[in-house]
Specification:
The complex is a heterodimer of chains A (94) and B (157). Chain A is an alpha+beta fold. Chain A has five helices and three strands; from the N terminus they run ααβααββα. The longest helix of chain A has 18 residues. Chain B is built from five helices and one strand, in the order αααβαα. Classes of the chains: A alpha+beta (94), B mainly alpha (157). The interface between A and B is medium-sized, with 30 and 32 residues.
Chain lengths: 94, 157
């Protein structure tokens, strides 16, 4: 059971969706996340930077077939914060 | 200063939970294998179940059993590789397995074993075919709807 903790950083609509999309998988590619969110690269980069600064996201850059692919995943700290935030939302709803 | 106690209203929280549910559905839909792969995987498991029951002292059924097992494993491996090419790496071992997934897995294993045991004990030729058909249905249904159910169940919990 996650600790109930409202997190304003995660609560921003796009960042909440980023966490929700990253939570059930090991990692998602940056381009895939852009498509699923329906936002531009620059918007996503800004949100990922905020999450990365808080230590919620792990950024892994790999080169395959001559092009660089950026993989994103939730860190253990990020998973815990997201689970806590979801619990807090459920508690507020009642 | 990220953490505060109750900075939003119940309606805002409800809207946020709804957006989480829609994001979970997007993930579940993008991770779902194509229908032909689901059918191939489910049918090969069904053949394996039936062949496992019927293979006693019969090398043909034994070969069919191993062949269908390999097809099933190849289907799963190709699905994981295809997802990776699409930019998604999945959790192969998910520690947060849901109750429905656990029950399905146990049921499939039980049918696999009972197909053989019942054939050995009673000599029934029909039961391995029934067990095979049931396993085909359970796996096909689970692969087609399972990811969405998982997402919904995790939302509820």
């Amino acid at each position: 059971m996650a600790t109930v903790c409202f997190d304003e950083l995660i609560h921003a609509p796009n960042r909440l969706k980023i966490c929700a999309l990253l939570a059930p998988v090991t990692s998602l590619e940056f381009v895939t996340l852009c498509e699923q969110l329906g936002v531009s690269d620059s918007v996503l980069s800004k949100h990922i930077k905020s999450l990365d600064d808080a230590g919620y996201v792990v950024i892994n850059k790999k080169t395959s077939e001559g092009r660089q692919r950026t993989w994103l995943s939730l860190s253990p700290k990020g998973r815990k914060a997201f689970a806590g935030h979801v619990e807090a939302l459920k508690e507020i709803v009642g | 200063m990220n953490k505060t106690d109750h900075p939003i209203t119940a309606n805002d929280a409800r809207a946020a939970l709804e957006s989480l549910a829609s994001a979970s559905n997007i993930t579940a839909n993008s991770m779902r294998p194509p229908l032909w792969l689901i059918l191939l995987c489910a049918v090969s498991l069904g053949i394996k179940t039936a062949a496992m029951g019927l293979m006693i002292n019969n090398s043909l059924w034994n070969n069919i059993q191993w062949g269908s097992y390999m097809v099933c494993c190849l289907c799963i491996a190709s699905w994981i590789i295809a997802l990776r090419a699409k930019g998604i790496t999945i959790k192969v071992v998910d520690v947060n397995i849901t109750k429905a997934a656990l029950i399905s897995a146990l049921l499939i294993c039980t049918l696999l074993v009972s197909s053989r045991v019942i054939h050995l004990q009673t000599g029934s030729l029909l039961f391995p075919y029934i067990a095979g058909a049931l396993n085909t249905l359970i796996l096909a249904y689970g692969l087609h709807f399972g990811l969405r159910w998982n997402a919904q169940e995790k939302e509820k919990n």
